[in-house]
Amino acid sequence: MMENHFRKPYNQVETTRQKIVFILAFGLFIFLFLFLFKPFGLATIISRSQLALSLGFGLVTIFMLIIFKFLIEPVVIRKTLTFGKSILWCLLIASSIGVANYFFAVIIFPQIFIFKYLLLAIWTAILVAIIPVSIGYIVTFNRIYRTALKEASISPDEILWESEVVIRGGNPRNEYKCNPKCIVYLCSNDNYITIFTLNGETINKTHLRGTLKAAELELRNNTSFFRCHKCFIVNTQYADHITGNIQNMKIKLKIQGLEVPVSRQKASEAARKFR
Which of 10, 68, 73, 118 satisfies CB 3.0 to 4.6 Å to 86 for a cystine? Predict the structure, then answer.
């Protein structure tokens, strides 16, 4: 049976900087496209108004993208999208931009509301958006492909393990010895750290007085541990997949449905590791 690519997970984790660059680039593209090529009757307008109108459409586009990227997406999208749903989401954004630009044109050129022209504006926005959106998908997939090739070249045998670690959390008054392969994750709470270890099918908890930063240094010779959050270190050997987006990302573990949170600063790195 042919694989359905539209159902594949599409984890595009964007930092705030990447969102801002995308929004500005998209708005600039709309402005230049309209001003240089003058489609949809723009060529019939006097030259002075062509610049102002093209700039206005570009600014409206930027305004709508800010609303979607910073206000709506963090609330609406709380889990990993498939490729197909990601395309539908882009179509919804483009349609909304078309609606906003139509009402902008109605304000600039006072006229009565005509539903047919609203639909035309939506269709036009979708057609214009195809170019930058397609370029964005190509760039993203190339980045995912290069990352996958790089990670595939690393053999699991290259993961370094010690036969035993001693975790003190920087406090010489307590210590915990164990095989690092048994550690599922560590978390901190104030001046204490909790070590979750696997014994058969049972999760054991060990509490120590100390800091997670010190524990991270004590585990540094075991390359499978990942500091995914200021309060969490996870053993990637027990990680299954990631859920959510940059705002509420979590690492789903293979054991008992456990989840470990990922900070916004570590979201991009986590997406690369567990894509």
Answer: 10
Does 154 have pLDDT greater than 50?
no
Domains and CATH numbers, the chain: 5-152 (no CATH), 158-274 (2.40.50.1020)
Q: Which two tokens stand for residue 119?
A: 């639909």
Phi, psi of 126 (to 5 degrees): -65, -45
pLDDT digits (tens, 9 = 90+) for 5-35: 667 666 666 778 888 999 999 999 999 999 9
Cα(111)–Cα(106) distance, integer angstroms: 6
- Determine the Cα angle at 215 with ends 209 and 220, to 5°: 170
Burial class (CB in 10 A: 0-12, 13-18, 19+), 153: exposed
Pick the more confident residue, 231 or 111: 231
Q: 3-class DSSP state for residue 231? A: coil
- Give the CA angle between residues 174, 175, 178 to the nearest 5°: 160
